[in-house]
Structure formats: C-alpha cells, structure tokens
Amino acid sequence: MFDKQAGKKFIDKSLAFKRIKKRKCKLCSNKIKVVDYKNVEFLKNYITERGKIIPRRVNGNCAKHQRIITKVIKKAREVGFLPFQAE
Ligand SMILES: [Zn+2]
Fold it and tell me: How far apart are CA 39 and CA 59, in angstroms?
C-alpha cells in the first residue's frame, strides 16, 4: 500500500512546502501601512501576467496586508491602472 518510494516522495513534498511557507510578508518587513492604488509597479508584484491576484499562500503575505492589497488592486482595476482578468 505505502511503499518506501511513495513515503520518500511525500517527505520531499512537505519539505518543499515548508520552504515556501517560510516567506514573510513584504509589507510587514518594510513596515508599509498604506498602499496607494496609483503605485502600479508595486501592485504588479501581486498579480500574475494575466491580471489575477496571487493568493496569500503563494506570495506569503499576512492576512491583514493581503486584504489591503486585494482591495487596492480592485480599485486600481476600476480606475484602469491594472487589467481585469484578461484572455
Ligand atoms: Zn503583513
């Protein structure tokens, strides 16, 4: 059922996951409190090429800042600085 190979693979996966999890929130470490929706260059770090917002588990933001960023990105989209989910 659970041979050695599969067990090894599972361990490797969990290690890789831990390494990703270690990432810290950029906004916390830079002590940024307010994010401007006009700061497109900064916001582009948090969206994919297609304009999707990168989830928290990937970019490593804390809940508080992720909430701020999604809010600001949505505002920037409405104003036209950032694309909506394209193509
Ligand atoms: Zn944070």
Answer: 18
